[in-house]
Amino acid sequence: MTASKLDQLRQMTTVVADTGDIEAVRRLKPVDCTTNPTLILKAVETPAYAHLVDEAIGWGKKQGGGDKAVHAVCDRLAVSFGTELTRIVPGRVSTEVDADLSFDTEATIAKARAVIAAYKERGVEKDRILIKIASTWEGLQAAKVLQGEGVDCNLTLLFALPQAVAAAEADAFLISPFVGRILDWHVKAGGGPYTAETDPGVVSVKSIYAYYKTFGIKTVVMGASFRNTGEIEALAGCDRLTIGPGLLDELAAATGELPRRLSPASSPQMEGGVSRKLGFDEKAFRFAMNEDAMATEKLAEGIRGFVKDLRGLRKLVAAKLG
User: Fold this and answer.
1) Residue 30, helix vs strand vs coil
2) What is the CATH number of the domain that holds 137?
3) Is the pLDDT of residue 267 over 80?
4) C-beta of residue 44 within 8 angstroms of C-beta of residue 53
C-alpha cells in the first residue's frame, strides 16, 4: 500500500504544525510546532485549556493591576502553551515576540530574553525554542543580536528576497516565507489563474531556497501560510514546512506518489537570474521593500493582524483579571 502523502513528505521535509492546539499536535505528531497570537487567542478560548488560563490568571492577580500585569499574563500564557508543546514535539517550539514591538529593536531583544528566561524557569532550555520575530529591519537587527547570544530566531512575515537576504546576514536560524498570503495579494490584484507551480508564493519560496543553497547559507527555509495542499506538494523537499491541522489531515488522507520538488543539489543557480550574492544595508533594504508593493503591504497587514489578535488576547486577560 502506498504511504500517505504526509508520510512521504516527512521523508524529505521536516513537518511543523502551525497551531496552538495541543491535542492536534499530539494527534499529528509533527517534529516542531509554531504558534502566534492568533493561534494562542483561539486556544485560550477553548475549554480544554482552561487549566492553563486559570493558572496564568491566578498568577497575574498577584502581580498587581494595570497593563503591566495584563502583558505579563499574556507572556505567561504563551510560555505555558509552549512548554506543553515541548513535551509533545521532539524538536523546536516557536514563540512570538509581541507584534507591536516590530519596529523597536531594543524592546524586541528585551522581550526575547524575558521569554527565554521564563522557559528556563520551567525547565525548558533555549535549544528547544525559536524566538519568532517579524521581518522588519528592526526585527532583523534584533535577531542578529539574539543569534549572537545563542538564541535562535524564526523570522516570520517574510515575503521577499531582500528580507531573506537580510535574515541570512543576521545569521537567523530559520525564516518563514508566507506562501498563501503572497498568492492572496496577487489574486486580489487580478492575477491568475495559477497552478501549484506558477503560484507566486511557491515561486518566491523556490527562489529563496535556490539563493540560500547556491551560496551555502545555513539559515533554514520553512514555507508557511498555505492555502491548499497543492502549494505544499510543489515545495516538497523544502527544509521545513509549517502546516495547519486541516491541511495536515488532507495530506494524511491522500495517497499517490509525492515527488521531491526541491533539493540542494537541484538548486545550482538562483531562479530569476540573480547569480551573485546580495547584501543590504538599512537604506538599500528599505528601498528594495518600497519597490515591492506586495511585500510592503503584506508585511504591514500581517503585523496589524497579529497586533489585533494580541489586543484581543490582552482584552480577554484584562477581563479575567477583573
Assistant:
1) coil
2) 3.20.20.70
3) no
4) yes
Domain that holds residue 42: 5-321
| pLDDT tens track for 302-311 | 999 999 999 9
**Nine cell digits for residue 85:** 508543546
The catalytic residues are: 132
User: For the chain, how many residues are written?
Assistant: 322
Predicted confidence band of residue 41 (pLDDT cuts 50, 70, 90):
confident
Which uninterrupted H or E stretch holds 240?
A: strand 240-243
Q: Which of 18, 147, 177 is nearest to 94 (CA)?
A: 18
Q: Which residues contact 182 (CB under 8 A, 6 or more apart)?
A: 159, 200, 201, 204, 294, 298
Q: Using pLDDT thresholds of 50, 70 and 90, give the confidence band for residue 269.
A: low
DSSP for residue 4: P
Domain count, the chain: 1
Residue 134 reports pLDDT greater than 90:
yes
Phi, psi of 240 (to 5 degrees): -145, 155
Helix boundaries (H) for 189-234: 200-214, 229-234
